[in-house]
Amino acid sequence: MTYPCSRLYDLPGQFLTIKTVASLTDVPVPSAWWCESDASVIGSPFFVMGRVDGEVPPDIPPYNFGDSWVFNATSEEQNRLQESSVSVLARLHAISDPEKHFSHLVGEFPGDTALRRHFANRQHWYEWAARDSGRSQLLEKVFAWLEEHWPAHESPAVFCWGDSRIGNVMYREFEPSAVLDWEMAALGPPETDLAWMGYLHQMFEDMAVTYGFPHMPHFLRMEDLATTYERLSGHTPRDVEWYGVYAALALGIVYLRTGMRSVHFGEREAPANGDELVMNAAALSALIGA
Predict the structure, then answer these.
(1) pTM across the whole model
(2) Of these residues, 10, 53, 59, 163, which one is catalytic?
(3) What are 22-37's pLDDT values in tens digits?
(4) Is 59 part of the annotated catalytic residue set?
(5) N- to C-terminal Cα separation, the chain
(6) I need a surface site. Which of 41, 54, 109, 115 has the fewest CB within 10 A?
(7) How would DSSP label each residue in 126-184?
């Protein structure tokens, strides 16, 4: 699952991110060999990575719908996968001086804290995503709710993976063999990564319950992720409920944009308003009491 998170796709920046992670951590990433900006070679810019073997938790159908290698694993194996995935976050967030090492991710958005700049970037992303689809009153209500309930204590900025979900990891023996998809990498509070990992699983859980499939309510629970992260990193996650809403907002923006892409390619009718494209609208409304 790839998310259109900006009007610009920074392929060289993603390549640099992967190489920098490889040089500064023991987090497993594919070898990044070269980046080609000349579109004439194969029709578009590209970069080349080394091959890595492993298993990926499936998205279609999601791993928690039953009959997947994750669903069928033992409790011990599932716990190992969960802990090793949180360990990836702890190791990434431990990179010192992230603004120096990832200067290409600093950006130009205003704000006197890392979270304020991250939030401004997300607002910009929404404005870009909504330009064709019409505005979403629900998403704008969520932005307002987040402003009203802003965390009193913001964690220092770290290097964040961004798209920190288990579906972006290849595993061998329930341990990561390759961490993938770095389009959403950013500088921000560590809770943004932790909440995204928890919320993306919860989104699959909501889908499983809605359609009557088996599910995994014991797996990737936010409280367990936070406890594990604190043990591995020494940092106590704060305001995890706020960051959960912030993660749900990001997914709502993804749905807004991908929904309009479906309209563009004739896969669905144009909606009367942007809210109709936000597939997690019910969950978002419940989170903010709307």
Answers:
(1) 0.93
(2) 163
(3) 999 999 999 999 999 8
(4) no
(5) 29
(6) 41
(7) HHHHHHHH---HHHHHHHHHHHHT--SSPPPPEEE-SS--GGGEEEETTEEEEE---TT
